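[job 0412] stage=complex_fold ligand=zinc ion status=START
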Amino acid sequence: MAKNDAQQIILDFRKRRTRQQFAIAVTLLCMVLLVLVYRRPDLFTEVPKSLISAAQIFLIGVFIVFTAINWRCPACKKYLGADIAKGRCPRCGARLQ
Ligand SMILES: [Zn+2]
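[job 0412] stage=complex_fold status=DONE, emitting structure tokens
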């Protein structure tokens, strides 16, 4: 593999990791807000609890779909999973960091 390709993989992975961290932060923030609205429906406007539950399920669904698309190895395009120990792809062994 050429040096440029290896660098491109590392750069691509960095972008994917940043996007993933951003998505986790946004999802957690939205979840906290939804739980807050669920517990204190009087806090904002009257929101039906069924709508809040639906919003939570939708949010989790969007996060799962986003992760399935984003969290892939730039080299082999396979899902990275939770364990990317030593900064390498667990599937193809490409250096990611
Ligand atoms: Zn890979």
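The chain has a mean pLDDT of 91.
[job 0412] exit 0
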